[in-house]
Amino acid sequence: MSAFLKIGHRGAKGHVTENTLQSIQKAMDFNVDGIEIDVHVCKTGELVVFHDFTLDRLTNGTGEIGKKTLSQLQNLQVEDQYTIPTLREVLQLIDNKLLINIELKGEGTAIPTCNIIQELINDKKWSLDNILVSSFQQNELVDVFNYDSNIPLGVLTKASVNQAIVFAKTINAKAIHPSFSLLSKNNVQKAKEEGLLVNAWTVNTKQAIKRIKSYQVDAIISDFPDRL
């Protein structure tokens, strides 16, 4: 394993349509250490893996993902050839072989995600070492912390590394997930001194990858995990 974890962003987004089982498989074929995905709760209560709050950019449907039933979503086409997977399908594919970073994208995703994690841990199908739950939404992370403080958390930020560190301490988070544009050698060092891992996103160009590596981050999340 390299000095940092190689994490595929929404699978291998630079190669195959994001957040599809095919994209995740592609990232696994590149021997990544982890996969980052996004979840929303649909109208019937299931967790689906999709980035946007609306269907328009990537599918032949329209409207809010949270207002559609699972069967409505499963009947849609993603970029004319894929389907929207459920979180369970993604977990089945990854099968505890590598890290899954579940980003709580939609509202109310924390508790259903925790329920699934709990089930996987109890059935001994997964180890908590291979699970990381991240979000920009602080209330969702607080909900996970209150449900089970052992679930590893990552605080996403595109605004301030320092603020992310301060908040991370309040929920005993394992990591901060800053946009790579915020990073410097000093603030990475500071986060590490506070006992936090630093997982940078989304680092795609050879130049940027080289620079972020030099800061000794713990993980790099990329659309092109093969470049890592």
From TrEMBL:
Domain of life: Bacteria
InterPro entries reported for this sequence: GP_PDE_dom, PLC-like_Pdiesterase_TIM-brl
Gene3D superfamilies with a match to the protein in the record: Phosphatidylinositol (PI) phosphodiesterase
PROSITE patterns: GP_PDE
Xref: SUPFAM superfamilies: PLC-like phosphodiesterases
Residues covered by the GP-PDE domain: 4-228
Protein name: Glycerophosphodiester phosphodiesterase
Organism encoding this protein: Olleya sediminilitoris
